[in-house]
What does this fold into?
Amino acid sequence: MEQPIGIFDSGIGGLTVAKAISDYLPNERFIYFGDTVHLPYGDKSQEAVLRYSKNIVDFLIANNCKAIVIACNTASAVAYEELRDRLKGIVPVINVIDPIIEAIVADGNHHKVGLIATKTTVESGVYQEKMKRRNPNMEMAVLPTPLLAPMIEEGFSEDKISHAVIENYLSHSRFNDIDALILGCTHYVLIRKEINAFFNGRVKLYDSTAIVAHKMKAIFETENLLSAKKSGQNHFYVSDLTDSFQEATSRFYDAKIKLEPLKL
Ligand code: DGL
It folds into this structure.
């Protein structure tokens, strides 16, 4: 099925998910929408994030997308159920939270899992609930880390500032005995190496790139949605285009891409 996949995020962080999908499923074409005018979602109310998400999904469906990927933990936490129900029987909706929970449970070796994410994601309690449902014995240690996404977006990684911020958050005593850590925000993939170094490789890290791409492939196989060949170009729309977003894309997507402005 050669229709595009619709992928959206609050901004450009979801490009890390889009990149993983395009690496793993190179025959797929997608329409990406980054809602930069409303960025960050991480400190908006649940009601606002839900409203923005519905609006974006209407646009993606009107553009003939065969599936929707919510490439944002915050929108996955507060809007997934409603979007899934709304699109039932029309197109599948994939969030970035369930595949991570499933991967941790499938690993079978974890006893205490940490979560770092935006305030809205942590306060939604969705990771905690979903984990409890899948494995009631799993302990969780959660911490909102609101400085990380803007820090990464501004280009701070692998330097003194990022080291200090990461150390400040992760040296919290609640993380002392974790054996896995969820990078619960699509931006955090860019500081994965630093986080790994902080824990000396002792803690297994889970993020929403390869895990989500693999889950998507499995869903596409079941639903007969895989494309046999790539037809046409990917499109990357943002609701507010600035030079700094354009500049930052190469860090998130690992290649030069052109953002197109689009007001919904
Ligand atoms: N990309 C968003 C997420 O994964 C974080 C950025 C934001 O707060 O908008 O939660």
